[in-house]
Amino acid sequence: MTDHPHCVALLVAAGQGTRAGEGPPKQYRVLAGQPVLRRSIEAFAASARVNRVHVVIDPDHRTDYHAAVAGLSLPSPIIGGATRQESVRLGLEALAPDRPALVLIHDAARPLVSPELIEATIDALDHADGALPVLPAADTLKRLRGAHVEGTLPRDGIGLAQTPQGFRFAKILAAHRTARDTTFTDDASIAEHAGLNVVAVAGSRRNAKLTTAEDFVMAEALLAGSGTLRTGFGYDVHRLGPGDHVWLCGVRIAHDQSLVGHSDADVGLHALTDALLGAAALGDIGQHFPPSDQRWRGAASHVFVAHAAKLIADRGGRVEHVDVTLICERPKIAPHREAMAARIAELLSLDRARVSVKATTTEGLGFTGRGEGIAAQAVATVRLP
Fold first, then answer.
1. For the chain, how many structural domains are there in total?
2. Least confident of 22-26, 231-235, 342-346, 372-376
3. CA-CA distance, 379 to 235, in Å (whole number)?
4. 305-311, long-range: CB within 8 Å, 24+ apart, which pairs?
5. Which of 20, 46, 102, 208 has the fewest CB atoms within 10 Å, counting from its CB?
6. pTM for this structure?
7. Does 144 lie in the same domain as 278?
8. pLDDT of 92
């Protein structure tokens, strides 16, 4: 709890998002490794000025919702209505018993909202009933009738509204209650209709609403160009012993021996896990999965890779590229290389083109040359905020 007025964020995520093309509703689609909704939630949860984040959802999206917010500490979702306006009102009604002083109403499909914009919206409520981010109209405005251009509109004094739209809670709840029989395009319109004092703060072009497939492409490009690139290196060795197969980079390969280890001894995925952890400065595989812990006896190594990838995603990072080199005389890797790369791409939710799997020998030298074991090296490139 802070010394500031009690402020809650209400994220509206009850829409269908059909204009975004094939796939789940846009708020549940993955953007740079994370669901859109999760990015929006984390933006508000990270603010010291926001005491709690609530989400309004469609009841048919419960499964998608719980998958998107797994691991986050959130109140139960609020069930929305048939329209955005009704969903917001239902959300406000659900919050009324807690009597917050301020509320920020935000479109869940605006995942790139900045801390500065959240702060500016809250600050504006010190001297107003409502506040909303506004972008000045940069393009010439045309009045249309179908495809026919009928005239040009003056753009002076014209702005494009964004969210979060902030309000004094009791006043916007009362305004929504009186507006139930009229359709409005946003919450600021409802506040204006009720005679509330609404002020504008500077919006951000980065804070665009994701509506079409093209919007997702542009948002991916924005995220790809931000943050710091980090590189991690991993190395692992396991000896060979009795058995009839080996696991390498998540692929089971018939062989006259097996790799020996506490888990399934997949040297490729172990080296990759260490590379991922190293890129994010999160320790090594032994710290997260100690060999002394019986839970990991015989475990499939894809669990370790998924864990490292989740830690990176939880920090707002994304894996950009990985490169694994297997070092052995046998088995031959070439027939399995594509399957290995595809499996790694699947584990990391990466495009196949961002995964490299190679193999080499030591020309008969050393323990790998003598067929006593298999080694692996891995390099991971990660982008972190």
1. 2
2. 22-26
3. 9
4. 305/250, 305/269, 305/272, 305/273, 305/276, 305/344, 305/347, 305/348, 306/347, 307/273, 308/273, 308/276, 308/277, 308/280, 308/282, 309/276, 309/347, 309/348, 309/349, 311/277, 311/280, 311/282
5. 46
6. 0.66
7. no
8. 98
